[in-house]
Specification:
Elongation Factor Tu (Ef-tu), domain 3, single chain, 3-stranded antiparallel sheet, 6-stranded antiparallel beta barrel, alpha+beta, about 290 residues
């Protein structure tokens, strides 16, 4: 007997809490846009560009440089300001002598409380589960003293903007690229990051500069700008990245693989991520007891 979680009728195998949480950035951004003030639009842009809820990462400065190489995925543990334990993993490889390292916080599968540190560009950051501003970290069994700013150096490793600004790398220049659906949009607009250019132009209340499909947002009120931003993030950016995950899953499939050596779960993981990005965390979720 095992337990699997599901989003509505989609049952998934992987823990996709951090992917599922991206819609909370969208929701917080839309809340700020609804206030329709210059200040709220600035906050909304911070959320769009910096994120908050998906893939939280602490960027800490070690008091002394690393004396040994540290690999991505190495376990890290420390304490919060209330001395409760906080855990994570090293975000990328670091060589001897490095003093600034990124640590991705561990998450749990309960979506509402999946991570206790959500800062980034949020107007209402959650810091209870962040590493304290200074203290000791256990990194791969070694103790390191560190400092950082809880409010400035806790970032989001995934943002709404990033889906578009990373599109060239992940949808055009990758193996088996360009992806067919993305390539149609790239050829139409003439820009790799066309979705971000659309949203950024709406935030700036200015015209776009595409090969085709231009819009002049300088004529819009904040009501119109809000709709352009909301539609740009959901229909142009997140939607395209969702399609990319589905296409990536197909690329990862190996119908003739040897289960003992070459098969892996990459296709399933990519497909689950697509479902998470498409649906979001605000949909009703239940736990199924499957035999």
């Amino acid at each position: 007997m095992r337990f699997k979680d599901h989003i509505n009728s989609y049952i998934y195998d992987w823990d996709i809490s951090i992917q599922n949480a991206l819609d909370l950035d969208q929701a917080e951004m839309e809340t700020q846009l609804a206030f329709a003030t210059d200040e709220s639009f600035m906050i909304a842009r911070n959320i769009y560009e910096q994120g908050s809820h998906s893939k939280p990462v602490a960027v800490v400065t070690l008091n002394t440089p690393l004396t040994a190489r540290v690999l991505e995925g190495t376990a890290v543990s420390g304490r919060s300001s209330s001395t409760s334990q906080v855990t994570g993993t090293v975000y990328e490889d670091y060589e001897v002598g490095a003093t600034e390292i990124k640590i991705q916080y561990d998450v749990i599968s309960i979506q509402a409380t999946h991570v206790g540190c959500q800062v980034g560009g949020s107007a209402e950051p959650l810091t209870d589960g962040c590493f304290a501003a200074s203290g000791r970290l256990q990194i791969g069994g070694l103790t390191h003293n560190y400092t950082y700013s809880v409010t400035e150096n806790n970032i989001a490793g995934r943002t709404l903007q990033g889906f578009s600004t990373q599109a060239e790398e992940k949808m055009y220049k990758c193996e088996n690229c360009p992806y067919v659906t993305y390539n149609k949009f790239y050829e139409y607009y003439g820009e790799f990051d066309y979705a971000d250019q659309w949203v950024s132009a709406a935030f700036d209340a200015r015209a776009t500069n595409f090969a085709r499909g231009n819009a002049d947002f300088s004529m819009y009120t904040k009501t119109g700008l809000t709709e352009a931003i909301k539609k740009g993030t959901v229909f142009m950016s997140v939607w395209m990245y969702t399609i990319r995950e589905l296409e990536d899953a197909i690329d990862d499939c190996q119908s003739d693989c040897d289960p003992a050596t070459t098969c892996n779960d990459d296709p399933v993981h990519a497909w689950d991520e697509a479902a998470a990005f498409y649906t979001g965390s605000l949909e009703v979720r239940t736990v199924l007891d499957l035999v």
